[in-house]
Amino acid sequence: MARRVAIVTGSSRGIGRAIAERLGADGMDVLVNYRSDAAAAGEVVAAIEASGGRATAVGADVTHLDRLREVFDAAERHYGGIDVVVSNVGIAKFAPVAEFTDEDYDTVFTTNALTTFRTLRESATRVRDGGRIVVVSSGVVATHSPGTAVYGASKAAGDALVRVLAGELGARRVTVNSVLPGAVSTDALHSLRTPGELAAVAKRTPLGRLAEPGDIAGIVSFLASDDARWITGQTVNAGGGYF
Asked: Which of 68, 88, 178, 213 lies 20 to 30 Å (CA to CA) from residue 114?
């Protein structure tokens, strides 16, 4: 069988890195996308190759349409086609609605909602029949915590796109789903929340801890597999029971 080809945007660190490495371990050729940290992306490529896979790193700020298209072009050029796309991009800013500025709103929605839309639009015409599209959303869409309204709304836009695009691509056997991670122990999360806040989240989570990036990667791996061929148009809650 021909090897499947996966693109994972924002995959030099955190959840994206874990997803890229897991898909590589699953036997896929992986296009590792990064914005600025070439060294970290190189480590991801090395990890995939060490597990027997193939990977290529492409530096591109995918919030710019021309650079996003370069990532898709690179996957087709290096590996001959695209079977799996994981849209993993986001910027988090938390503030009450009354304090959110227009400028911050534009930044959050451009990075999260517009870039996700463009990635899905590109995927709709480039992913081969029988392919998989997965959006990494956010658990704040489901928790409705104070201060998360704009960020949550920008992520919820992607979930709405997923549900409709699944119907539009179903005839080609392309599945489209999103994953809503809860609190995941990444550098980004630890920079946004105090240790006390994170301890409180872990205590309220039925499974008793924060998620690790690999927990989310395992879910994406399943959705990208043939075993998930009958699941499409879904948002998968991945909060350890928190939501």
From this structure: 213
Secondary structure class of 225 (helix, strand, coil) = coil
| Token duo for residue 65 | 């349409």
Query: Hey, which residues are catalytic here?
Result: 151
Average pLDDT, the chain: 97
Tell me what the mean pLDDT of segment 207-212 comes to.
Answer: 97
CATH topology of domain 5-235: Rossmann fold (3.40.50)
Token pair of 181 as six digits: 């991670």
Sign of CA dihedral 1, 15, 112, 238: positive
Cα Rg for the chain, rounded, in angstroms? 17
| Amino acid at the residue 238 | A
How many helices (H) and strands (E) would you count in the chain? 10, 7
pLDDT in tens, 140-198: 999 999 999 999 999 999 999 999 999 999 999 999 999 999 999 999 889 888 999 99
Instruction: Tell me how far apart the alpha carbons of residues 136 and 138 are, in angstroms, rounded to a whole number.
Output: 7
Q: Which residues, 6+ apart, have CB-to-CB distance to 39 below 8 Å?
A: none
What does the chain come to in residues? 243
Structure tokens at 7: 């693109």
CA distances from 122 to 77, 84, 88, 116 (A): 16, 12, 14, 10
Q: What is the pTM of this model?
A: 0.96
Nearest by Cα to 172 from 131, 228, 133: 131
Classified as helix, coil or strand, 12 is coil
Any idea where the domains of the chain sit in the sequence? 5-235
